[in-house]
Amino acid sequence: MKPPNRPARFDAILLPHLDAAHNLARWLLGSTQDAEDTVQESYLRALTYFQSFHGEDGRAWLLAIVRNTCFEWLHKKRRHIEMPVEHLELFRDAAPSPEALQLRRSDRLAVQRGLEALPPEYREVLVLREMEGMSYKQIAQITNVPIGTVMSRLARARRRLGEALTGAARRETA
Amino acid sequence: MTCREAIPFLNAYRDGELDLMRTLDLESHVRECRPCAAILETEKTLAEAVASAPYYRASPSLRARVESPREPSWRRPAPWLALAASVIAALFVIGRGAPSDNLGKQIVQAHLRSLRADHLVDIAAAGRHTVRPWFAGKLDYALNVQDISGRGFALAGGRLDSLNGRTVAVLVYQRGPHAVNVFVWPAAGQSDRSPEASTINGLNLVNWRADGMNWWAVSDLGLADLEELPLCPCFMPVHETLRS
Hints:
Chain A is mainly α. Chain A has ten helices and no strands. Chain A folds into two domains: about 10-80, Rna Polymerase Sigma Factor, Chain: A (Orthogonal Bundle); about 85-165, Winged helix-like DNA-binding domain superfamily/Winged helix DNA-binding domain (Arc Repressor Mutant, subunit A, Orthogonal Bundle), CATH 1.10.10.10.
């Protein structure tokens, strides 16, 4: 498919968000090579659908395309490779206590590992919220779920990350 | 405002996403309630932790490719295809599973069987009042059938299946095009256990023990979606049991 000619408006609206697009793709896919290919593909798609963009929030519009392209990619891959959820289970039996978190908050590697071990649906809401500073409404638009789901998903994502960052025994809730 | 009312919204409160009324309510609750203030503090630390993680900027070469696309370089053959084979080989060697794997596998098999044979339900639901009595005569245990259709999972019906030679009840829920099979059987005096997630053959499973029952939910839904199944006590806030 040959990309249609690019209007100057396309460059002005969407090129400033290249870093955001790459950051999201890199966190979702876990590899720079895959992220770069996906971002490139996303810009191609953005160009194809650019007529349907009505000039509201260029970043959210672009990131929605990026995350959809990433998830398609993940699903394709999932047919061949089981997701290593076990990574996550290693951390599961822990609850975050403020003290324990305090000790490790500066441990960036631990944070990175913890994030990487989360399911992609959790990772993406954290990236969009904490790194892009997006509102629940924008996140809902990008991930195509209701705002209430964004709220509960973020809560779960943070909780899981907290579990990953502490080694403490999980308190029984029952 | 009680802790139970406050906790689900602490997150959104910290993010400044609540309306004025609720914000004020939470503000005064958190001022008085130390456990909730501590949760809020944890939320804040976690948010800062994520913000401190690497931000992966686009490389100059990607920027060049996106800014002035040239046809040949735009699409490369997916490198992961070549990699996939070797990764699968590696997984084959490493991928010997955990002890509950066996049960998980049986449940995945049963799930697939029910879809393949187009035999998802023995009794189609017309509200839980049809499903529960249907099970009553067929099981040696009582089953609580919850209607959670208002919360995104429509009750499609029930089915009898067999695991390790035991007859077990399966509740079938539907979320959009995805079927969720929930296997339920008595836990014979074992204590409750928090939910655990796993993935087998690309299907996601969540299992837990509550109310004297073993619960195994399996679906092709994403893990995050599956954990939103309202039956599952997934990730109840730590302080949920507190009373204020």
